[in-house]
Amino acid sequence: MNHLYRNSVRSVTTILALACAFSATAAPDAFTSGALTTADASGWLRTFTPTGTIDTSNPFFQSLGTNGRSCNSCHRQAQGWTITPAELQQRFDTTQGKDPIFRTNDGSVSPFADVSTLAARRKAYAMLLNRGLIRVGLPIPANAEFSLTAVDDPYHYASAAELSLFRRPLPATNLGFLTTVMWDGRETAAPFKPPMDAGVASADLDASLASQAKDAVLGHAQGAAAPSDAVLAQIVAFESGLSTAQIRDDNAGFLNDDDAIGGPRVLANLRFHVGINDALGADPTGAAFDPSAMHLFDAWATQHGNGRSERARAAIQRGENLFNTVPIAITGVAGLNDVIGQPTIQGHCSTCHDTPNVGNHSVGAPLDIGLTDASRRTPDMPLYTLTNNQTGASVQTTDPGRALLTGKWADIGKFKGAILRGLAARAPYFHNGSAATLMDVVNFYDTRFNIGLDAQQKQDLAAFLAAL
Predict the structure, then answer these.
(1) CA-to-CA distance for 313 and 459, rounded, in angstroms?
(2) What is the distance between the alpha carbons of residues 428 and 271, in angstroms, rounded to a whole number?
(3) Is 76 helix (H, G, I), strand (E, B) or coil?
(4) What is the domain range of residue 9?
């Protein structure tokens, strides 16, 4: 996946360009005191904060456990406040695999992995280095409707007492739009309720984020004791103040130029409430679902010319239009088709990615879109056979998802949908890192739902996603 990232020469060029941009005339809001900008795979990523700075004295950046880790070990600004294989490989090479993120409690393929030599450590931390995945250990719940009847674990560790689940750390930014905390929702204190505004956490969201921070210290950082409420409140306040989005595309230029509204400043001020624009009528305002959920680049629909920037902007706007309008026959999605009793739902990308100009699900609705099916398993992933205790039916999955929290057969393979802003900086994608590029994401959906996109449409959609 190194081909997604700039080589060292291009990085130097970008740094020089950034330096020059501060003194040159740039797009409106191109650089302000309230933003920090870093280079990524397709341009520049920006984080906006209310204070205009990143407060590195916050406990977010402090080692609160016993193994040297901080929140920042797995949530890096330049990587969209998560981690990426390329940056992890750099840390591994610099420290010979001894950076705090490389710890066997959850960074290695099993807690018993050999880390005695450099070569052994490279093998032990392969899931981090190759796919940016942390190992989460969860048991089969005592009251589960299913049993674990077979395990195929290439690392010879997983059992019903602790399944090995390899997942991407979610971004610690844009948190005001969350309706579920963690991929499986295990840190969601209570169903979030309106009203909520972006950047202003509800009491339920505050409690969920505090619980997540506490458990991260106790688990990931192997803390001897939970942080104080005051420390947790500081971490939550810091995270809740972060807004992150792409601000410049290498080809299209500034993404807030010519009346476009890309970038984190507008994102930080978006109105939001739980259920906004929900496709199934859960918007508490009573407003009808509008499939045109994305409007960041509407102004570029009238772009003319054949220069590089004009062509790139036209592609991004076409991709946004496809996101809003391309027809999709949604079938076989547990948590959606079965819930409303419709084998086929005629929808769009925005049917599930409905939060306007953000792209996550505006209600806590975990879905199974088939990412953990045995047919998509790669050799580096464990495979679990689960058997229904009443019917005897069996299913194979690489990750039972929410079912390990609820114990429900119907929840196997269900995960939340992530926020879509700042995507270009944080490959790979999906909870298991199975899509190395944004084009891989587009191809997954095109194949999964038989959409029938042509090559140009795929390129346009990928260009739009990279501009978010």
Answers:
(1) 12
(2) 29
(3) strand
(4) 2-84+168-371+415-466
